[in-house]
Design brief:
This protein is an alpha+beta fold and 263 residues long. The protein has 6 helices and 12 strands. A 12-stranded mixed sheet has the order 7-8-9-10-11-1-2-3-4-5-6-12, with helices on both faces.
Length: 263
C-alpha cells in the first residue's frame, strides 16, 4: 500500500491547509459532544469522479474517519490526546500524540516565517480578504496565493459547528505529520476559524491555489463536498464497534514501520 495519502475528513493533503495564533497554544480538544456523520468527496481539477472519499463519524467525544482507498481508519481520541491509525489491510496500528502533532506544526511555522520566499511567508501567516453573503451563505477567502469559496450550511445544533471546527483543525495539523512535504496547514485553519465564528460548516469547498512546482506557478483547483447527517445509523454504530475491536486486535508498530509501503 502506498503510505502517502490524503487525509479523509477534509482531504487536507489538497485543502491545505484558531488552530491558534502562532500555535503558541493548541487547538481546542473536543469537549461535550454530539453524535453525527459527515460524508466527504474530493474532486481535483475537472475530474468527474472523486479522487478520494471518506466517512467521518462523531461518536461520544471520539471521531472515527474511514478512508475508502487505501483502506485506513483514523481515530481521534481527544480525551487521551492521541490519534490512532489503523491499516485494515495489513492489520497494523500506530499512535501519534496530539502534542507531537502540534509541536511539529509550531516548528514548521517558525521555519517558514524566517524564510525570504514570500510564498513560504504567506503559508506561515496567511492573510485573506474575507467576504460573506448572508443570502446565499457563501463565504469567500481570497489572496494572491490561495483562495477559498465555500457554500456553507448551518447545523441545527450549534455544538456541531464547534466540534467540526475543532476536529478539522486537528486533522489538518495531522496531515503535516502523515505527509512530509505537504503544504503548511495554516490557510485551512484560517478557513475553519471563519466558518466556526459564523456557526457554519462547509457543504462545498472550492479551492484555488498557485502551486510552486517549477516556474512559473501552476494553478491548481480542488472541490470537496461534505454531506452532514445529524444522526448515526445502527450500521454506523456497528462500524464503530468493529473499529474498537480492531484497536484491540491489530499489531502495534511504531509510526516509521507503519509508514513503510507494503511489499
Amino acid at each position: 500500500m502506498d503510505r502517502t495519502r490524503m487525509v479523509g475528513f477534509v482531504a487536507a493533503a489538497w485543502l491545505v491547509g484558531q488552530a491558534v495564533g502562532g500555535l503558541g497554544s493548541q487547538p481546542a480538544l473536543l469537549q461535550a459532544a454530539e453524535d453525527f456523520r459527515v460524508e466527504n468527496k474530493v474532486y481535483v481539477g475537472s475530474d468527474k469522479e472523486p479522487r478520494t472519499e471518506s466517512t467521518t463519524l462523531f461518536y461520544q467525544g471520539l471521531v472515527y474517519d474511514y478512508l475508502k482507498e487505501p483502506a485506513e481508519v483514523t481515530v481521534f481520541d481527544a480525551p487521551h490526546r492521541r490519534f490512532i491509525l489503523l491499516d485494515t489491510s495489513r492489520r497494523l496500528k500506530t499512535e501519534l500524540s496530539a502534542d507531537e502533532v502540534a509541536a511539529l506544526n509550531h516548528n514548521l511555522r517558525d521555519w517558514a516565517a524566517r524564510q525570504t520566499d514570500p510564498y513560504l511567508q504567506f503559508l506561515a501567516a496567511p492573510k485573506f480578504e474575507e467576504q460573506f453573503d448572508e443570502q446565499t451563505g457563501t463565504l469567500a477567502l481570497t489572496s494572491p496565493w490561495i483562495s477559498y469559496r465555500v457554500i456553507t450550511q448551518v447545523p441545527d445544533n450549534p455544538a456541531v459547528a464547534r466540534q467540526y471546527r475543532e476536529f478539522s483543525d486537528w486533522y489538518t495539523l495531522l496531515n503535516t505529520r502523515l505527509n512530509p512535504g505537504s503544504k503548511l496547514p495554516f490557510a485551512r485553519l484560517s478557513l475553519n476559524e471563519a466558518l466556526e465564528k459564523r456557526g457554519r460548516i462547509p457543504k462545498e469547498v472550492h479551492l484555488t491555489m498557485r502551486s510552486k512546482r517549477g516556474l512559473p506557478f501552476q494553478k491548481v483547483t480542488v472541490r470537496s463536498e461534505h454531506h452532514l447527517v445529524t444522526t448515526l445509523l445502527q450500521s454506523d454504530r456497528d462500524r464503530i464497534r468493529q473499529t474498537d475491536e480492531f484497536m484491540g486486535m491489530f499489531r502495534a508498530v511504531d509510526f516509521g514501520e507503519y509508514q513503510k509501503p507494503s511489499r
